[in-house]
Amino acid sequence: MRDPSLSRNTASRLSPSRRATDLRRLRSERFDVLVIGGGVTGAGAALDAASRGLKVALVEARDFASGTSSRSSKLIHGGLRYLEQLEFGLVHEALVERGLLATRLAPHLVRPVPILVPLPAGRGPRGLPGRVWRRSYYGTGVAAYDAFAGLFGGERGMPLHRHLTREGARRTFPSLRADAIAGAIRYHDGQVDDARLVVTLARTAASVGAAMVTSARVVGLTRQAREVTGVRVRDMEAPPGSPDAEFEVRARTVIAATGVWSDDLSEMLGDVGVRRGLRVRASKGVHLVVPRSAITGEAGLILRTPTSVLFVIPWGGHWIIGTTDTDWRLDRAHPAASARDIDYLLDQVNTVLDRPLTTADIEGVYAGLRPLLTGEADSTSKLSREHAVYEPMLGLLLVAGGKYTTYRVMAADVVDRAARRLGGVRPSRTADLPLLGADGYAALWRDRADLARRHGVPGGVVEHLLERYGNLTTHLLDMIDAEPLLGTPLAGAPEYLAAEVAYAARAEGALHLDDVLTRRTRISFETPHRGAESVEQAAEIMGRVLGWDASVRAREVEHYLARVQAERQSQRMPDDATADAARMGAPDVRGLAADRGRDAGLDEVELPG
Question: What is the pLDDT of residue 594?
Answer without folding.
Answer: 32
